[in-house]
Amino acid sequence: MKNFHRFFKASIATLLLGLSCFTVPANTLENIRQVSHEENNFDDVFSKEKFLSAHETIEEYVVKTPLVALPRISAKTGKMVYLKDESRQRGSSFKTRGVTYEVFKTIEEVIVHNPKLLEEGLQIVTQTDGNHGVALILAVTSAIEKFSALYPEKAQAIHKIEPVIFTYTKVLPVKRSLMEKAMAEYRVCVGDASKGAILDSYQDYGDARGGREKFIQTQSGRAIYMEHGGIKTMQGHASAALEILDQLQQYRIGENLKVCLLLPIGAGGPIGLSAAMKAFRQNATAVMVQTERWGAFVRSLESGKMEENDSSLSPFTVSIMENGVEKKIVYEDGISVDGPESEETLLMAKKYLDGAIFADPKRALNQAAPLLLADIIEFYVNQEPVVGGTTAILADALLTNLSQRAIKEADVIILFGTEGSIDPAIVKHTRKLFKESDFSK
User: Fold this and answer.
1) Backbone conformation region of residue 92, classed left if phi is above 0, alpha if psi is from -120 to 50, else beta
2) Fewer Cβ atoms within 10 Å of its own Cβ: the N or the C terminal residue of the chain?
3) Are residues 75 and 59 in the same domain?
4) Which domain holds residue 154?
Protein backbone atom coordinates (compact mmCIF):
# COMPACT_ATOMS: atom_id res chain seq x y z
CA MET A 1 0.00 0.00 0.00
CA LYS A 2 2.75 2.43 0.98
CA ASN A 3 4.65 1.55 -2.18
CA PHE A 4 1.58 2.41 -4.27
CA HIS A 5 1.27 5.79 -2.62
CA ARG A 6 4.95 6.55 -3.09
CA PHE A 7 4.60 5.45 -6.71
CA PHE A 8 1.98 7.96 -7.73
CA LYS A 9 3.43 10.74 -5.62
CA ALA A 10 6.80 10.28 -7.28
CA SER A 11 5.37 10.03 -10.77
CA ILE A 12 2.67 12.69 -10.55
CA ALA A 13 4.67 15.45 -12.26
CA THR A 14 5.51 13.24 -15.24
CA LEU A 15 1.99 11.88 -15.55
CA LEU A 16 0.42 15.34 -15.69
CA LEU A 17 2.08 15.85 -19.05
CA GLY A 18 -0.16 13.20 -20.55
CA LEU A 19 -3.37 15.15 -19.96
CA SER A 20 -3.11 16.99 -23.25
CA CYS A 21 -4.11 13.85 -25.18
CA PHE A 22 -7.66 13.93 -23.80
CA THR A 23 -10.49 15.85 -25.43
CA VAL A 24 -13.44 17.60 -23.81
CA PRO A 25 -16.43 15.23 -23.78
CA ALA A 26 -19.61 16.61 -25.31
CA ASN A 27 -21.72 15.46 -22.37
CA THR A 28 -19.83 17.49 -19.75
CA LEU A 29 -21.85 20.22 -18.06
CA GLU A 30 -19.30 22.94 -17.35
CA ASN A 31 -21.59 25.63 -16.05
CA ILE A 32 -24.13 24.96 -13.34
CA ARG A 33 -26.21 28.10 -12.92
CA GLN A 34 -25.16 30.13 -9.90
CA VAL A 35 -27.61 30.84 -7.09
CA SER A 36 -27.08 34.02 -5.12
CA HIS A 37 -25.90 33.81 -1.52
CA GLU A 38 -28.81 35.97 -0.43
CA GLU A 39 -31.47 33.77 -2.05
CA ASN A 40 -30.25 30.41 -0.77
CA ASN A 41 -28.07 30.62 2.29
CA PHE A 42 -27.61 27.09 3.64
CA ASP A 43 -24.50 28.05 5.61
CA ASP A 44 -26.34 27.88 8.94
CA VAL A 45 -27.34 24.23 8.46
CA PHE A 46 -24.09 23.30 6.70
CA SER A 47 -21.66 24.81 9.19
CA LYS A 48 -18.60 23.17 10.70
CA GLU A 49 -20.42 22.94 14.02
CA LYS A 50 -23.41 21.14 12.48
CA PHE A 51 -21.20 18.64 10.68
CA LEU A 52 -19.12 17.91 13.78
CA SER A 53 -22.26 17.46 15.87
CA ALA A 54 -23.77 15.05 13.35
CA HIS A 55 -20.54 13.07 13.18
CA GLU A 56 -20.38 12.80 16.97
CA THR A 57 -24.02 11.67 17.13
CA ILE A 58 -23.59 8.69 14.80
CA GLU A 59 -19.88 7.89 15.15
CA GLU A 60 -20.37 4.72 17.19
CA TYR A 61 -23.11 3.47 14.85
CA VAL A 62 -21.15 3.68 11.58
CA VAL A 63 -17.94 2.15 10.28
CA LYS A 64 -14.96 4.34 9.41
CA THR A 65 -14.53 2.98 5.89
CA PRO A 66 -11.14 2.84 4.18
CA LEU A 67 -9.77 5.39 1.73
CA VAL A 68 -8.07 3.13 -0.81
CA ALA A 69 -5.28 4.32 -3.10
CA LEU A 70 -5.85 3.44 -6.77
CA PRO A 71 -2.37 3.39 -8.40
CA ARG A 72 -3.39 2.15 -11.86
CA ILE A 73 -6.17 4.70 -12.25
CA SER A 74 -3.78 7.33 -10.90
CA ALA A 75 -1.28 6.41 -13.60
CA LYS A 76 -3.93 6.69 -16.30
CA THR A 77 -5.23 10.06 -15.13
CA GLY A 78 -2.17 11.86 -13.83
CA LYS A 79 -3.95 12.42 -10.53
CA MET A 80 -3.69 10.89 -7.08
CA VAL A 81 -6.91 8.89 -7.06
CA TYR A 82 -8.55 7.26 -4.05
CA LEU A 83 -11.72 5.30 -3.38
CA LYS A 84 -13.80 5.93 -0.26
CA ASP A 85 -15.17 2.40 -0.09
CA GLU A 86 -18.63 2.46 1.48
CA SER A 87 -19.30 -1.16 0.51
CA ARG A 88 -17.59 -1.83 3.87
CA GLN A 89 -20.17 0.25 5.73
CA ARG A 90 -22.67 -1.16 8.21
CA GLY A 91 -25.62 -2.22 6.09
CA SER A 92 -23.24 -2.37 3.09
CA SER A 93 -24.06 1.19 1.98
CA PHE A 94 -23.27 4.85 2.66
CA LYS A 95 -27.01 5.23 3.36
CA THR A 96 -26.39 4.13 6.95
CA ARG A 97 -24.73 7.48 7.70
CA GLY A 98 -27.42 9.92 6.68
CA VAL A 99 -30.38 7.74 7.59
CA THR A 100 -29.03 7.03 11.09
CA TYR A 101 -28.63 10.72 11.81
CA GLU A 102 -32.01 11.61 10.34
CA VAL A 103 -33.77 8.86 12.32
CA PHE A 104 -31.98 9.72 15.57
CA LYS A 105 -32.78 13.44 15.33
CA THR A 106 -36.40 12.81 14.30
CA ILE A 107 -37.09 10.35 17.13
CA GLU A 108 -35.38 12.51 19.74
CA GLU A 109 -37.46 15.52 18.67
CA VAL A 110 -40.63 13.45 19.07
CA ILE A 111 -39.54 12.18 22.50
CA VAL A 112 -38.81 15.68 23.76
CA HIS A 113 -41.53 17.71 22.06
CA ASN A 114 -44.36 15.30 21.20
CA PRO A 115 -44.28 12.28 23.56
CA LYS A 116 -47.98 11.65 22.91
CA LEU A 117 -47.03 10.54 19.39
CA LEU A 118 -44.85 7.82 20.88
CA GLU A 119 -47.82 6.44 22.82
CA GLU A 120 -49.90 6.40 19.64
CA GLY A 121 -47.19 4.43 17.82
CA LEU A 122 -44.70 6.44 15.73
CA GLN A 123 -44.03 5.09 12.25
CA ILE A 124 -40.74 5.86 10.46
CA VAL A 125 -41.41 5.53 6.74
CA THR A 126 -39.55 5.60 3.41
CA GLN A 127 -39.55 4.20 -0.12
CA THR A 128 -36.46 2.37 -1.32
CA ASP A 129 -34.72 0.25 -3.92
CA GLY A 130 -33.18 -1.58 -0.97
CA ASN A 131 -30.25 0.29 0.55
CA HIS A 132 -32.24 3.10 2.16
CA GLY A 133 -34.64 0.54 3.60
CA VAL A 134 -31.86 -1.54 5.16
CA ALA A 135 -30.32 1.59 6.68
CA LEU A 136 -33.64 2.83 8.04
CA ILE A 137 -34.53 -0.44 9.78
CA LEU A 138 -31.05 -0.65 11.33
CA ALA A 139 -31.30 2.99 12.45
CA VAL A 140 -34.72 2.52 14.06
CA THR A 141 -33.42 -0.47 16.02
CA SER A 142 -30.34 1.49 17.17
CA ALA A 143 -32.51 4.48 18.10
CA ILE A 144 -34.85 2.35 20.21
CA GLU A 145 -31.89 0.89 22.11
CA LYS A 146 -30.21 4.28 22.53
CA PHE A 147 -33.20 6.34 23.60
CA SER A 148 -34.71 3.64 25.83
CA ALA A 149 -31.49 3.86 27.85
CA LEU A 150 -31.50 7.70 27.84
CA TYR A 151 -35.22 7.99 28.67
CA PRO A 152 -36.04 4.84 30.72
CA GLU A 153 -39.36 6.29 31.85
CA LYS A 154 -40.45 6.37 28.18
CA ALA A 155 -38.90 3.05 27.13
CA GLN A 156 -42.24 1.27 26.72
CA ALA A 157 -43.54 3.95 24.35
CA ILE A 158 -40.23 4.10 22.49
CA HIS A 159 -40.52 0.37 21.79
CA LYS A 160 -43.73 1.08 19.85
CA ILE A 161 -41.77 2.85 17.09
CA GLU A 162 -42.06 0.96 13.79
CA PRO A 163 -40.13 1.06 10.50
CA VAL A 164 -42.40 0.89 7.43
CA ILE A 165 -40.67 0.27 4.10
CA PHE A 166 -42.18 0.70 0.64
CA THR A 167 -40.33 -1.11 -2.14
CA TYR A 168 -41.11 -2.95 -5.37
CA THR A 169 -41.69 -6.55 -6.40
CA LYS A 170 -38.47 -6.95 -8.40
CA VAL A 171 -36.09 -5.40 -5.87
CA LEU A 172 -32.76 -7.26 -5.92
CA PRO A 173 -33.00 -10.46 -3.84
CA VAL A 174 -29.79 -9.61 -1.96
CA LYS A 175 -31.31 -6.28 -0.88
CA ARG A 176 -34.62 -7.88 0.02
CA SER A 177 -32.73 -10.43 2.11
CA LEU A 178 -30.83 -7.73 4.01
CA MET A 179 -34.04 -5.79 4.68
CA GLU A 180 -35.65 -8.95 6.05
CA LYS A 181 -32.61 -9.67 8.21
CA ALA A 182 -32.63 -6.13 9.61
CA MET A 183 -36.38 -6.36 10.24
CA ALA A 184 -35.92 -9.64 12.12
CA GLU A 185 -33.35 -7.95 14.37
CA TYR A 186 -35.74 -5.05 14.95
CA ARG A 187 -38.54 -7.44 15.97
CA VAL A 188 -36.25 -9.17 18.44
CA CYS A 189 -35.37 -5.74 19.86
CA VAL A 190 -39.03 -4.74 20.44
CA GLY A 191 -40.15 -8.26 21.37
CA ASP A 192 -43.01 -8.32 18.86
CA ALA A 193 -42.93 -10.31 15.60
CA SER A 194 -45.91 -8.38 14.21
CA LYS A 195 -44.20 -4.97 14.29
CA GLY A 196 -42.65 -3.28 11.25
CA ALA A 197 -43.48 -3.82 7.58
CA ILE A 198 -41.82 -4.28 4.20
CA LEU A 199 -44.48 -3.50 1.59
CA ASP A 200 -43.24 -4.78 -1.78
CA SER A 201 -46.26 -4.97 -4.08
CA TYR A 202 -45.23 -1.96 -6.19
CA GLN A 203 -44.05 -2.02 -9.80
CA ASP A 204 -41.00 0.23 -9.47
CA TYR A 205 -39.38 2.90 -7.32
CA GLY A 206 -41.77 5.64 -8.47
CA ASP A 207 -44.78 3.46 -7.73
CA ALA A 208 -43.39 2.69 -4.25
CA ARG A 209 -42.92 6.40 -3.66
CA GLY A 210 -46.56 7.00 -4.56
CA GLY A 211 -47.62 4.24 -2.16
CA ARG A 212 -45.60 5.81 0.62
CA GLU A 213 -47.15 9.23 0.00
CA LYS A 214 -50.69 7.82 0.14
CA PHE A 215 -49.90 5.83 3.29
CA ILE A 216 -48.65 8.88 5.18
CA GLN A 217 -51.83 10.78 4.30
CA THR A 218 -53.94 8.08 5.99
CA GLN A 219 -51.97 7.87 9.25
CA SER A 220 -53.22 11.03 11.01
CA GLY A 221 -49.72 12.35 11.71
CA ARG A 222 -48.32 9.09 13.12
CA ALA A 223 -46.07 8.45 10.10
CA ILE A 224 -42.96 10.54 9.41
CA TYR A 225 -41.10 10.31 6.11
CA MET A 226 -37.31 9.85 6.12
CA GLU A 227 -35.97 11.76 3.13
CA HIS A 228 -33.23 10.60 0.75
CA GLY A 229 -31.83 14.07 0.15
CA GLY A 230 -32.98 16.28 3.03
CA ILE A 231 -30.86 18.46 5.29
CA LYS A 232 -30.56 15.96 8.17
CA THR A 233 -29.66 13.21 5.71
CA MET A 234 -26.93 15.32 4.17
CA GLN A 235 -25.57 16.31 7.58
CA GLY A 236 -25.27 12.62 8.45
CA HIS A 237 -23.66 11.68 5.14
CA ALA A 238 -21.10 14.42 5.79
CA SER A 239 -19.52 12.18 8.42
CA ALA A 240 -17.79 10.47 5.48
CA ALA A 241 -16.20 13.80 4.53
CA LEU A 242 -14.80 14.23 8.04
CA GLU A 243 -13.26 10.78 7.79
CA ILE A 244 -11.81 11.63 4.38
CA LEU A 245 -10.21 14.80 5.78
CA ASP A 246 -8.53 12.75 8.49
CA GLN A 247 -7.43 10.09 6.00
CA LEU A 248 -5.96 12.68 3.64
CA GLN A 249 -3.75 13.83 6.51
CA GLN A 250 -2.64 10.25 7.07
CA TYR A 251 -1.69 10.07 3.38
CA ARG A 252 0.19 13.36 3.86
CA ILE A 253 -1.99 15.23 1.35
CA GLY A 254 -1.26 18.87 2.11
CA GLU A 255 -3.84 21.65 2.35
CA ASN A 256 -2.25 23.24 -0.73
CA LEU A 257 -3.42 20.39 -2.99
CA LYS A 258 -6.79 20.65 -4.68
CA VAL A 259 -9.20 17.82 -3.92
CA CYS A 260 -12.19 16.90 -6.09
CA LEU A 261 -14.96 14.53 -4.98
CA LEU A 262 -16.82 12.48 -7.59
CA LEU A 263 -20.27 11.79 -6.18
CA PRO A 264 -22.92 9.43 -7.58
CA ILE A 265 -26.15 11.28 -6.83
CA GLY A 266 -29.69 10.04 -7.20
CA ALA A 267 -31.97 12.01 -4.86
CA GLY A 268 -29.27 14.30 -3.43
CA GLY A 269 -27.88 12.85 -0.18
CA PRO A 270 -24.14 12.90 -1.08
CA ILE A 271 -24.33 16.69 -1.58
CA GLY A 272 -23.68 16.81 2.18
CA LEU A 273 -20.14 15.53 1.56
CA SER A 274 -19.42 18.41 -0.78
CA ALA A 275 -20.79 20.96 1.67
CA ALA A 276 -18.67 19.51 4.49
CA MET A 277 -15.48 19.28 2.45
CA LYS A 278 -15.88 22.90 1.41
CA ALA A 279 -16.56 23.99 5.00
CA PHE A 280 -13.27 22.49 6.18
CA ARG A 281 -11.09 22.68 3.06
CA GLN A 282 -11.22 25.80 0.90
CA ASN A 283 -9.79 24.24 -2.25
CA ALA A 284 -12.24 21.30 -2.38
CA THR A 285 -14.63 20.78 -5.30
CA ALA A 286 -17.28 18.18 -6.14
CA VAL A 287 -18.78 16.81 -9.35
CA MET A 288 -22.04 14.88 -9.67
CA VAL A 289 -22.09 11.69 -11.74
CA GLN A 290 -25.17 10.05 -13.26
CA THR A 291 -26.01 7.93 -16.31
CA GLU A 292 -28.21 9.06 -19.17
CA ARG A 293 -31.05 6.71 -18.19
CA TRP A 294 -31.13 7.95 -14.59
CA GLY A 295 -30.04 11.51 -15.31
CA ALA A 296 -32.98 13.51 -13.94
CA PHE A 297 -30.79 15.42 -11.48
CA VAL A 298 -28.24 16.45 -14.10
CA ARG A 299 -31.04 17.60 -16.40
CA SER A 300 -32.64 19.49 -13.51
CA LEU A 301 -29.39 21.38 -12.99
CA GLU A 302 -29.30 22.23 -16.69
CA SER A 303 -32.87 23.52 -16.85
CA GLY A 304 -33.15 25.00 -13.37
CA LYS A 305 -36.38 23.08 -12.66
CA MET A 306 -37.39 19.61 -11.54
CA GLU A 307 -36.97 17.13 -14.40
CA GLU A 308 -37.79 13.45 -14.80
CA ASN A 309 -35.71 10.55 -16.06
CA ASP A 310 -35.82 9.82 -19.77
CA SER A 311 -38.04 6.73 -19.76
CA SER A 312 -37.46 6.23 -23.50
CA LEU A 313 -33.96 5.01 -22.61
CA SER A 314 -33.50 1.45 -21.37
CA PRO A 315 -31.44 0.71 -18.27
CA PHE A 316 -28.18 -1.08 -18.96
CA THR A 317 -28.69 -4.68 -17.88
CA VAL A 318 -26.09 -7.39 -17.45
CA SER A 319 -27.20 -10.82 -18.66
CA ILE A 320 -25.73 -13.59 -16.53
CA MET A 321 -26.45 -17.33 -16.69
CA GLU A 322 -27.13 -18.72 -13.23
CA ASN A 323 -27.98 -22.42 -12.83
CA GLY A 324 -28.93 -22.58 -16.50
CA VAL A 325 -31.28 -19.60 -16.25
CA GLU A 326 -30.59 -16.17 -17.73
CA LYS A 327 -30.58 -13.46 -15.09
CA LYS A 328 -30.76 -9.77 -16.06
CA ILE A 329 -29.41 -7.24 -13.56
CA VAL A 330 -29.69 -3.46 -13.82
CA TYR A 331 -26.08 -2.29 -13.49
CA GLU A 332 -27.10 1.27 -12.53
CA ASP A 333 -29.20 -0.02 -9.65
CA GLY A 334 -27.46 2.14 -7.01
CA ILE A 335 -28.53 5.45 -8.59
CA SER A 336 -31.81 4.39 -10.19
CA VAL A 337 -34.12 6.91 -8.52
CA ASP A 338 -36.61 9.26 -10.10
CA GLY A 339 -34.91 12.62 -9.52
CA PRO A 340 -33.96 15.24 -6.91
CA GLU A 341 -35.66 14.87 -3.53
CA SER A 342 -37.09 18.38 -3.72
CA GLU A 343 -36.60 21.85 -5.17
CA GLU A 344 -34.62 22.71 -2.03
CA THR A 345 -32.25 19.81 -2.79
CA LEU A 346 -31.79 21.18 -6.29
CA LEU A 347 -30.85 24.57 -4.85
CA MET A 348 -28.30 22.92 -2.57
CA ALA A 349 -26.79 21.14 -5.56
CA LYS A 350 -26.40 24.44 -7.39
CA LYS A 351 -24.61 25.93 -4.41
CA TYR A 352 -22.31 23.06 -3.46
CA LEU A 353 -21.51 21.24 -6.71
CA ASP A 354 -18.95 22.33 -9.30
CA GLY A 355 -20.15 20.30 -12.23
CA ALA A 356 -22.23 17.36 -13.39
CA ILE A 357 -21.30 14.66 -15.89
CA PHE A 358 -22.72 11.50 -17.41
CA ALA A 359 -20.99 8.12 -17.46
CA ASP A 360 -21.54 5.09 -19.68
CA PRO A 361 -22.61 2.05 -17.61
CA LYS A 362 -21.66 -0.49 -20.30
CA ARG A 363 -18.15 0.92 -20.59
CA ALA A 364 -18.02 1.12 -16.78
CA LEU A 365 -18.66 -2.62 -16.49
CA ASN A 366 -16.33 -3.76 -19.25
CA GLN A 367 -13.42 -1.35 -18.75
CA ALA A 368 -13.54 0.58 -15.47
CA ALA A 369 -14.71 -2.26 -13.21
CA PRO A 370 -11.81 -4.67 -13.99
CA LEU A 371 -9.34 -1.79 -13.62
CA LEU A 372 -10.82 -0.85 -10.24
CA LEU A 373 -10.71 -4.43 -9.07
CA ALA A 374 -7.05 -4.67 -10.06
CA ASP A 375 -6.33 -1.70 -7.79
CA ILE A 376 -8.36 -2.63 -4.72
CA ILE A 377 -7.41 -6.31 -4.76
CA GLU A 378 -3.96 -5.18 -3.59
CA PHE A 379 -5.56 -3.44 -0.59
CA TYR A 380 -7.98 -6.16 0.51
CA VAL A 381 -5.40 -8.89 0.93
CA ASN A 382 -7.41 -10.91 3.45
CA GLN A 383 -10.91 -9.90 2.31
CA GLU A 384 -12.81 -10.37 -0.91
CA PRO A 385 -12.80 -7.07 -2.85
CA VAL A 386 -16.06 -6.05 -4.50
CA VAL A 387 -16.78 -3.56 -7.26
CA GLY A 388 -20.39 -2.64 -7.92
CA GLY A 389 -21.99 -0.61 -10.67
CA THR A 390 -21.98 2.69 -8.80
CA THR A 391 -18.25 2.72 -8.13
CA ALA A 392 -17.41 1.53 -11.65
CA ILE A 393 -19.60 4.32 -13.07
CA LEU A 394 -17.60 6.87 -11.05
CA ALA A 395 -14.33 5.48 -12.40
CA ASP A 396 -15.66 5.63 -15.96
CA ALA A 397 -16.75 9.24 -15.43
CA LEU A 398 -13.25 10.16 -14.27
CA LEU A 399 -11.42 8.32 -17.04
CA THR A 400 -13.53 9.90 -19.80
CA ASN A 401 -13.96 13.43 -18.42
CA LEU A 402 -10.44 14.54 -17.55
CA SER A 403 -11.00 17.93 -19.19
CA GLN A 404 -14.00 18.79 -17.01
CA ARG A 405 -12.90 21.93 -15.17
CA ALA A 406 -13.01 20.75 -11.54
CA ILE A 407 -11.41 17.42 -12.43
CA LYS A 408 -8.74 19.01 -14.60
CA GLU A 409 -7.71 21.48 -11.88
CA ALA A 410 -7.61 18.89 -9.09
CA ASP A 411 -4.46 17.24 -7.77
CA VAL A 412 -6.41 14.59 -5.86
CA ILE A 413 -9.59 12.78 -6.94
CA ILE A 414 -11.78 10.87 -4.50
CA LEU A 415 -14.38 8.44 -5.80
CA PHE A 416 -17.18 8.17 -3.24
CA GLY A 417 -18.15 4.54 -3.74
CA THR A 418 -21.63 4.55 -2.23
CA GLU A 419 -22.39 1.01 -3.37
CA GLY A 420 -24.97 -0.97 -1.50
CA SER A 421 -25.81 -4.63 -1.47
CA ILE A 422 -24.14 -5.75 -4.69
CA ASP A 423 -25.71 -8.73 -6.40
CA PRO A 424 -23.32 -11.71 -5.97
CA ALA A 425 -23.70 -12.44 -9.67
CA ILE A 426 -22.27 -8.98 -10.50
CA VAL A 427 -19.35 -9.58 -8.12
CA LYS A 428 -18.65 -12.91 -9.82
CA HIS A 429 -19.02 -11.47 -13.32
CA THR A 430 -16.68 -8.56 -12.57
CA ARG A 431 -14.06 -10.96 -11.24
CA LYS A 432 -14.39 -12.98 -14.45
CA LEU A 433 -13.82 -9.82 -16.55
CA PHE A 434 -10.81 -8.99 -14.37
CA LYS A 435 -9.25 -12.44 -14.87
CA GLU A 436 -9.74 -12.12 -18.63
CA SER A 437 -8.15 -8.67 -18.71
CA ASP A 438 -4.51 -7.62 -18.87
CA PHE A 439 -4.85 -6.16 -15.35
CA SER A 440 -4.74 -9.62 -13.75
CA LYS A 441 -1.30 -10.36 -15.19
Assistant:
1) left
2) C
3) yes
4) 95-231
